[in-house]
Design goal:
mainly beta, UDP N-Acetylglucosamine Acyltransferase, domain 1, eight-stranded mixed beta sheet, six-stranded parallel beta sheet, 30% strand, globular
Length: 186
């Protein structure tokens, strides 16, 4: 990080590889993990401005070597991994948890208690399922990758896709819900 427009700091439990780039400390305003290493940014990887790391107390995010993450929101209570040479476009949401119950009455209770929480954020529901983005995968702008999904090596997720199931290696998926539309040639 050369100069930072935000007056924050990079937390001490962030491990950065050689020539890794973190655009701004603003990315850490919702970073609350208590793990000894809550974020690992690989060699030559880039975590660009406007990326938000909403990482809960037990969450861990790993960004592989030479991966590029651009203006992405990562919601993590367990684990989100982004493979080497992966591209994650702007406006993408990678989430390993929903943080609220699906049942409406239980969800109302959580929301009713929210104003009394410090920091004012939703508690984890314990229903986290890791998200993995494979080596050389490309997640297009505005896509959403939901809890428990693995995007295979070399796969492409089209812009605005909502990924609810695993994506095979070298597949191209699009739509809501995302479906395989073709296979890539290696």
């Amino acid at each position: 990080m050369m100069t930072d427009w935000h007056p924050g700091t990079i937390p001490p439990n962030v491990a950065r590889g050689e020539s890794a780039y973190i655009g701004t400390s603003y990315s850490f305003t919702r970073y609350r993990t208590r793990r000894s290493v809550g974020l690992r940014v690989g060699r030559g990887a880039s975590l660009l401005d406007l990326t938000v790391l909403d990482v809960g107390p037990r969450g861990r995010v790993v960004v592989g070597d030479f991966a590029l993450v651009n203006a992405t929101r990562i919601i993590c209570d367990a684990e989100v991994t982004i493979g080497d040479f992966a591209l994650v476009g702007w406006g993408v949401v990678l989430m390993d948890t929903y943080r609220v119950p699906f049942e409406a009455a239980e969800r109302r209770k959580v929301l009713h208690a929210l104003p009394r929480r410090t920091p004012r954020c939703l508690p984890g529901t314990g229903g986290s399922r890791p998200v993995h983005v494979g080596r050389g995968a490309w997640i297009g702008f505005g896509a959403c990758v939901l809890p428990g999904v693995t995007v295979g090596d070399g796969a492409i997720v089209a812009a605005r896709a909502v990924v609810v199931d695993d994506v095979p290696p070298d597949a191209v998926v699009a739509g809501n819900p995302a479906r395989v539309v073709r296979r890539r040639r290696s």
